[in-house]
Amino acid sequence: MFPIHRPRRLRKNETIRRMVRETSLSPDSFIYPLFVTFGKHTRKEIPSMPGCFQESADEIVKHAKEIYSLGIPAVILFGIPEHKDEIGSGAYDDHGVVQEAIRAVKDAVPELILITDVCMCEYTNHGHCGIIKDGDVDNDQTLELLAKEAVSHAQAGADMVAPSDMMDGRVEAIRIALDEEGFPDMPIMSYAAKYASAFYGPFRDAAESIPQFGDRRSYQMDPANRREALKEVALDIEEGADIVMVKPALAYLDVISDVKDAFDVPVAAYNVSGEYSLVKAAGKLGWIDEQRVIMEILTSIKRAGADLILTYFAKEAVKLLNK
Ligand code: PBG
Fold first, then answer.
1. How high is the pLDDT of residue 208?
2. Distance of CA 143 to the CA centre of its chain
3. How far is the centre of ligand 1, averaged over its atoms, from the C-alpha of 13 (Å)?
4. What's the whole-model pTM score?
5. Of 252, 315, 257, 302, which is closest to residue 31 (Cα–Cα)?
6. CATH number of domain containing 238
7. Which domain holds residue 75?
8. What is the count of structural domains for the chain?
9. What is the pLDDT of residues 36-93, one digit of tens each?
10. Within 6 Å (CB) of ligand 1, which residues are found?
11. ∠ CA 270-272-278 to the nearest 5 degrees?
């Protein structure tokens, strides 16, 4: 009771605040997303995501060197193929954009951990995350293609696969296929609790993956559901997920916290494109202190329980941490 308890005693100056700080950020927990496009010497800035680019494999190699030299241990690769079709064949093409980028980066920066996003939406002409039957994505037919895609990434030299499609049973299908093809040690980071979110808007511009009809609500989770996230995560762990992800991050800190409390596997959170663009836009307008907001957001995601954070802010955050 006052005046015995004065919490301000431990806030007196930066040194003492540093001593009692409960959460700290480190480059070790960052995963930086990269968009791989076809061609050569291509580097196109994404209008709704200033500072982020669609890059051809040769540019990705240069970028990967910079990222690793900053101390960021991992990237996640998304592909933008030259041609899209009904069955997303670019996703499991051994000479697809992501497969070629993996080979080039592995050659140049072997220590950098290469995670691949395993999904169909960047490769289908209808923009949905799988095979369409009767106006909706057919779950079980899609599983076969996702498994093929994961194996193809593994064969190219990926270090980890990250299925983001939200089909039921996909972690198991991918685990079985990887094991059969000789990749029993390949970890799976599943997008376990992935919500049908409007925060993905800028990413769909970046990946040119806007659904051509309908939306993703028949497979991604309803933003109103909290307990269901624990069910999705439990299923993915049972099926063999090594790391589980909650996505988006900022509007779902309660879900991150629940997942962290309930399970013993590493938890990742995806600080998605819309969360990035909001900060960039307000920063540009001079309405917020952009650098402080970035660090506050990342700290909050970590405080909620994320061990790993996929974030477009990774490079800026490392520079701010080193300041
Ligand atoms: C699907 C995928 C999406 C994102 C990552 N993987 C988009 C979606 O489900 O529509 C979103 C990432 C972001 O918004 O930053 N392959």
1. 87
2. 20
3. 41
4. 0.97
5. 315
6. 3.20.20.70
7. 21-242
8. 1
9. 999 999 999 999 999 999 999 999 999 999 999 999 999 999 999 999 999 999 999 9
10. 117, 119, 121-122, 164, 200, 203-204, 272-273
11. 140
